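Section 3.1: Structural characterization of target chains.
Under the original work plan, the team committed to producing a structural model for every single-chain target entering the pipeline before any wet-lab resources were allocated. The record below documents one such target. The sequence was received from the expression subgroup and is listed exactly as submitted; it comprises 229 residues.
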Amino acid sequence: MDRLKYFLQKEYFKNNDNKVYYLKCDIRKYFPSINHNILMNNLKRIDFSDDEFWFIKKIINEQPDNLERGLALGNQSSQWFALYYLDKIDRLIKEELQIKGYVRYMDGFILLHRDKKYLQYCLEKINKVCIEKLDLELNQKTQIGLAYNGIDFLGFNHILTNSGKVIRKLRFSSKQRMRKHIKTIRKLKDKSIIDEEYVGMRINAFKVHLKHSNEKSMDKLLSNLDKKI
């Protein structure tokens, strides 16, 4: 999020205005869609020993129902493989398309540019590599828009104002999810299903997440969080 803020403000100060376009891309069902053969062919470029590669192959291939695609959620190795799988997209965007303002978090990524038509061209190129090289599809969240209308990324709406300031607002669906989670925790605590230590961990997690927002209403929510559980 800080990287996105940096690039947004950098684009703003080029022309001292906030007419900056963004292309936001998301992969459809990313983890279940990762093709094992493509992943392993890409991993061959790394200098693994025969024993290491045998072990990696075993981790990737041993999936439920012996499917030839998909990575197990929760495995640390799956996180690493999923990051690496889009290396071709990273190189396309940075090296061929020469996009300076580029941010990626796993399968969600954002390109910033002043020219909307160029971002439309970038989308065509990205979509082609996804389909032909990676056996992936972009989902319905993929869109082109103006940064002053807000960029939905990592649970927050990032808005580039006409003064060059970037405001982060917690996404409405994230607020609803958090309130629902708080109510569930309160009920579980009242029934002695969870203890104070777990409650404390969840409260701290909420507080850390909320601190990324600079909405004034978040200050009140932060201060009342302990009372709500």
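The two ends are 28 Å apart (CA to CA).
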